Please model this.
Amino acid sequence: MTEDYRKIELIMALRNQGIRDQAVLEAIERTPREMFLSSPFQPMAYADQALPIACGQTISQPYVVAFMTDRLKLNDRCKVLEIGTGSGYQTAILSPLCRRVYTIERYRTLAKEAEERFKTLGLANVTQMVGDGHKGWPQQAPFDRIIVTAAASEVPKALADQLAIGGIMIIPLEEGPMAQELYRITRDETGFTRERLLPVRFVPLVEGVARET
Ligand code: SAH
Model:
């Protein structure tokens, strides 16, 4: 099977699983996932599964990327904050669907590799930082959308504070030893509303910037 054929099969599977937003499906179709993987994993780029990347982390499963992006309800005026750049794949999917993406990663190695990919793909509206995502990016707040791609025990206060009124946050939260649920948090003048969306499995959101050798 060719890469293109596998990709079309993946898009069809995502559509069958309820991802209907054409812009989201197009972003996935146009983004070469193999570019975000090391060579041993490239043949599996269009299988619908999470795969290992450097620093013991993972690139998210395409369905979960599509689902989270769909539920963010992006438009070209949105300023988006992403916590957990990882490979940069989710960032690359967000980039064509919004005005600007600010993305934070705690591993410098991953941030650098992602930066190269953003350059190669010509993603001009992505700004990155190595830092602790728990703190958000106060200098750039408020954000219309916030997407967290690592699981926290509770919504970090700084992120809630940095969500604009009318904004949407998608975040996986731990709900027990092996259980995580994806939540959508919306903010209006009166406060925050939480909706449970989907059981998921993400790597943990870890405090502080990673020490690397
Ligand atoms: N969106 C990524 C998924 C990467 S996995 C992708 O598509 O590839 C989650 C990432 O969150 C990991 O790279 C991990 O290092 C990062 N992470 C975990 N805790 C963090 C924190 N406190 N601040 C910033 N990044 C964090």
